[in-house]
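thoughts on both lines:
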Amino acid sequence: MEPVNLKALDRAGLAAFVARIGERPYRAHQLYRWVYARGAEGFAAMTDVSAATRRTLAARASLPTISLVAQTDSVDGARKFLFRLGDGETIESVWIPEPRRVTLCVSTQAGCALNCSFCLTGRGGLKRNLAAWEIVEQYLAARRLTADGPPITNLVMMGMGEPLANLDAVVGAIEHLVDGDGIHLAPRRLTVSTAGIVPKMAELGRRAPYVNLAISLGATTDALRDELIPINRRWPLETLLAACRDYPVPPRRRILFEYMLIRGLNDTPADAKRLVKMVHGIRCKVNLMSYNPIPGVPYERPEEEAVHAFKKRLEASGVAAFVRRSRGRDILAACGQLRAADADGGADTTPLAAVGA
């Protein structure tokens, strides 16, 4: 009989497994704490579980993990992890320390089907969705690998893939990430980002309304957004913004609009004016990011002066705006730069200078 992957079970599934092997109900809680709160990598580590039970678990269950292929450290302190999954596919996660928080950016798919023109991930297409346990395992692995640094306080699903295209697994992962008996991340410190899959936005709002929602906006006209984020042809800006107005934003929270500024393309005063009009009436804030160069794409980063001028125009009209500094650009770990592995399966350590920054 194939061993049961305990990490693939939710709380109810774990309780059912414990009953099947003849253990008392409290054992499910005990196992859950060992896996998620303490990060046990094997049953032998579970020292308060009887030896007989540990032998049964070793015969009937498994605790798989994802394997580290490579770690690349940025000059700014960020760390990029290249992980290999059980079937050989690879994904990337990024650990980002800041003075008042430590953010982990995780992937929800191996590859991506959206093919946004400013993003490296979609160049290789979608390989497959990640299982919920593989999303959570990025946190558990990163926690082990950064034990020498400050603890992870925030988690963003902004890595490889479109989270809402894998919503069941994302919601399953969220349930483990916020569970008070295990990882216990504060829901307000967990953010799910989407390029705008409108029907799934409403579903996320029903199933996990306590997490933050981020929208990759990128443009203020449908013509440009069609080029940058092709799913806009299916759910154009008017439809997307209507969904944002209907979204059940928790009290004292705001939708986050991520707006990547590209020199001469979407960073003009006219764009700022349209953006103000677009978000009117939505409880939100706008994160401004500068485009991060990727190989083979002619877009350019805007000048710092243009970024701050854009921000001032938004603020002058009453829109909360912030400039998000790119982290890990020198190791291709910044937004839009993740691509997992080269064709030979090795880590991507291309220096930023080689891609035209």
